[in-house]
Amino acid sequence: MLEFIVQSPRNRPDLVEVRYDCQCGCKPRARYERGSDEANFEHCCCGQVHFVGARAEERLKAYLGERSAQGLDAEVGEYSIHALQVKAPWGEPVPVAYALPAMHKKH
Ligand SMILES: [Zn+2]
Ligand SMILES: [Zn+2]
């Protein structure tokens, strides 16, 4: 399981940024804007991906499905998908979904 840090950027109380310290050394981050129907994501260099925002899990699966159809993720093997909710600073739950590859790529 990844441990997420949930914060609003300075002077942007309408945004939440969800980040984590990746085992590869990167600090992937993705933002969600309050009230929006969007989700954003970061695909870490090592192969881990996280989505934050509306329908995060559905979007993550669609994203990985497209990549796999193009043969882009063959080297990392199967992904395991995890979904959770974090609490935005304004009090609402925000969906987060992430995928962990069977084999990580080098940083
Ligand atoms: Zn990484
Ligand atoms: Zn990295």
What would you note in describing this structure?
This protein is mainly β. It has one domain. It has one helix spanning 56-69; strands spanning 5-7, 15-19, 29-33, 39-43, 49-53, 79-87, 93-101. The strands form two sheets. It has a four-stranded antiparallel sheet with strand order 4-5-7-6, with helices on one face. A hairpin with a 5-residue loop joins β6 (79-87) and β7. The model has no long low-confidence stretch (mean pLDDT 97).
Bound molecules: zinc ion
Average residue pLDDT: 97
Number of domains: 1
Number of E-state strands: 7
Helix content: 10-25%
Major β-sheet, in short? 4 strands, antiparallel
What is the percentage of strand-forming residues?
35-45%
Tally of individual helices = 1
Strand order of the largest sheet: 4-5-7-6
What Rg is obtained from the alpha carbons, in whole angstroms? 14 Å
Q: How would you classify the helix and strand content by structural class?
A: mainly beta
- Residue stretches low in confidence (pLDDT < 50, at least 5 long) are none
CA distance, first residue to last residue: 20 Å
What order do the SSEs take from the amino end to the carboxyl end, as H and E?
Answer: EEEEEHEE
User: What's the shape?
Assistant: globular
